[in-house]
């Protein structure tokens, strides 16, 4: 199966500090992947390695089944944090630059998007709103006709309306161009709205990955009489546990029905799932019933 992005033992070190360590990841092509994790988890470093802006200190990374960087760059569209544009260049200048740098540039697509968005080709980027700059950056990313579009928290600084418009345009581009997308975000609502595959990265390590629909169907909250975690069935992987004197609450993952009548059982939201795994340090000693990180394919 073609992989949009594959990392094996990937690490990046700056001086004595590791920004990314021992990251292993396999993202399928043809999906809209939401990459979520706390600040400092290594998300931006991972994506910059994927587009060849950084070189690994250890391990390896492939994009579209070939080493990152070099010829693969022509197949990748990239929108970095803060959706950078050149403040002194006009919208039209940005499109000319895109055409000059990208042999597969689709100028009709770029011009159509600019017209539909109501952007003045003569307007300098420095005078555009944050939402307009983000849309200009997305236009540059999709008009090169990439196979993979990588977005590093492109809407974090936008207001809710601009963020929604950006994500709607992104989904239209995905449908029209059959793109693979990796979207890094700290906003679970954006991932839920636009993505069908989830990766939670904590301390450079993948805590969970898989189809969002499947993840939601296999995670539960159990509330009942106080019980020791070690007594839980082996088919119930405990993500987190909290206790009072008489009551226990477990967040679990299981592929099988929970039949114990002592438990009150409820499904988790996507935010519940993300926060539960983000709360687990990758360096935490495994629990007695720990299993390998979940990776589910549709």
- CATH hierarchy class name of the largest domain: Alpha Beta
Please tally the β strands and state the result. 15
% residues in beta strands: 25-35%
Largest β-sheet summary: 7 strands, mixed
Task: Please trace the helix and strand order, writing H or E for each element.
Answer: EEEHEEEHHHEHEHEEHEEEEHE
Total count of helical runs of at least 4 residues: 8
Assigned CATH superfamily of the largest domain? P-loop containing nucleotide triphosphate hydrolases
Shape: elongated
Please, could you describe this protein's structure?
The chain has about 300 residues and is α/β, with parallel strands linked by helices. The chain has two domains: about 5-210, Rossmann fold (3-Layer(aba) Sandwich), CATH 3.40.50; about 220-295, no CATH class. It is about 30% helix and about 30% strand. It has eight helices and 15 strands. Strands 6-7-8-3-9-10-15 form a seven-stranded mixed sheet, sandwiched between helices. Strands 2-1-4-5 form a four-stranded antiparallel sheet, with helices on one face. The chain has a four-stranded antiparallel sheet with strand order 12-13-11-14. α3 (about 105-115) packs antiparallel against α4 (about 130-145). The two termini are about 15 Å apart. Residues about 280-295 have low confidence and may be disordered. GO terms for molecular function: ATP binding; ATP hydrolysis activity. It comes from Kribbella italica. Keywords: ATP-binding, Nucleotide-binding, Transport. It holds the Pfam family ABC_tran. This is ABC-2 type transport system ATP-binding protein.
């Amino acid at each position: 199966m073609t992989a949009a992005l594959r990392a094996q033992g990937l690490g990046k070190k700056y001086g004595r500090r590791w920004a990314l360590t021992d990251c292993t990841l396999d993202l399928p092509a043809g999906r809209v992947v939401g990459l979520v994790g706390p600040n400092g988890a290594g998300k931006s470093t991972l994506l910059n390695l994927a587009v060849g802006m950084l070189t690994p200190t250890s391990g390896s990374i492939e994009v579209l089944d070939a080493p990152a960087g070099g010829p693969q760059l022509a197949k990748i569209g990239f929108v970095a944090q803060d959706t950078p544009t050149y403040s002194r260049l006009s919208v039209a200048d940005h499109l000319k630059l895109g055409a000059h740098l990208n042999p597969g540039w689709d100028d009709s697509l770029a011009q159509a998007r600019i017209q539909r968005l109501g952007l003045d080709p003569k307007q300098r980027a420095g005078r555009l709103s944050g939402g307009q700059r983000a849309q200009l950056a997305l236009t540059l990313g999709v008009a090169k006709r990439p196979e993979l579009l990588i977005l590093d928290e492109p809407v974090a600084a936008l207001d809710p309306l601009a963020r929604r418009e950006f994500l709607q345009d992104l989904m239209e581009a995905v449908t029209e161009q059959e793109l693979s997308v990796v979207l890094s975000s700290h906003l679970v609502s954006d991932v839920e709205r636009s993505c069908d595959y989830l990766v939670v990265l904590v301390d450079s390590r993948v805590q969970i990955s898989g189809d969002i629909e499947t993840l939601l169907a296999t995670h539960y909250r159990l509330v009942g009489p106080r019980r020791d975690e070690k007594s839980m069935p082996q088919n119930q992987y405990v993500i987190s546990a909290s206790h009072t004197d008489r009551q226990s609450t477990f967040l679990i993952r299981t592929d099988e029905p929970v039949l114990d009548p002592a438990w009150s059982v409820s499904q988790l939201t996507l935010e519940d799932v993300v926060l539960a795994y983000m709360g687990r340090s990758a360096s935490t000693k495994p629990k007695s019933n720990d299993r390998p990180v979940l990776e589910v394919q549709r």
